[in-house]
Write a structure and sequence with these properties.
With 231 residues, this protein is an alpha/beta fold. Helix content is 26%, strand content 33%. It contains eight helices and 15 strands.
Length: 231
């Protein structure tokens, strides 16, 4: 059974990310997008909304103020870049609290939590493996085609992503990126490198080569790499 949802956030980039994630969850139907809380009350009175992705920090009406004033709020996942409201938010019966930037694996935890409120026979949710990843590059959200992504290199709090003929410097850590990429297609081979398994040309116990670029393999990753390459 499909469930309906809305996005309430004053930042266009946040809508972009959530839309990208929702496109990969066919059992959630997006029926409204709002950039402030003023119109949400009227919309929820006239439309059946099962789930609301709600930003806390918004002008005019904050997310928590909106929850206080909705007579029958839908199940809610709060989204914010600030953690200080986490404890207070659970006073309003929210089902989860997502910290920005919101990565797909963590988003799925919230979706699973939401569907767990319904009978298993009603759920039937099918999650499609992601084919793209939204990352922030120079302050803009960019979709990276995962079928083209060759490998990534850590540069402190940034990661350089390599696709044929182009590179992107994304504002994300390698740890966060690792948890956002599908494990069936990508593997971390070093503290600084993640590689697309099917793009590997040659390899040894201490190196991996993709096209003309050779990457080191960390000691802690060697056995797992050999196992993956020999299956």
């Amino acid at each position: 059974m499909r469930k309906t949802c809305i996005i309430v956030d004053d930042e266009p980039a946040a809508h972009y990310v959530l839309l990208s994630h929702l496109n990969q969850v066919p059992d959630l139907e997006l029926i409204g997008q709002f950039y402030n809380g003023v119109e949400v009350r009227q919309f929820t009175e006239l439309n059946e909304v099962d789930l609301m992705f709600l930003d806390i920090n918004m002008p005019e009406v904050s997310g928590l103020d909106l929850l206080r004033n909705l007579p029958h709020p839908p199940k809610t996942v709060l989204t914010t870049a600030y953690s200080e409201f986490a404890l207070e938010s659970y006073d309003y019966g929210v089902i989860d609290y997502l910290m920005k930037p919101i990565y797909f694996p963590r988003f799925l935890v919230s979706v699973d939590r939401f569907f767990s409120y319904y009978d298993v026979s009603d759920r039937g949710a099918v999650v499609v493996a992601p084919t793209s990843l939204a990352v922030k590059v120079d302050g803009e959200m960019v979709d990276i085609d995962l079928n083209e992504l060759l490998y990534t290199q850590s540069l402190g709090n940034y990661v350089k992503l390599f696709i044929p003929g182009k590179t992107y410097l994304a504002s994300i850590t390698t740890n966060d990126l690792e948890h956002s990429l599908p494990a069936a297609k990508f593997m971390r081979i070093h503290k600084s490198y993640i590689v697309a398994i099917e793009k590997i040309g040659t390899y040894g116990k201490d190196f991996v080569q993709v096209n003309d670029f050779r990457m080191p393999v960390g000691i802690t990753y060697r056995q797992k790499l050999m196992e993956r390459m020999n299956t």
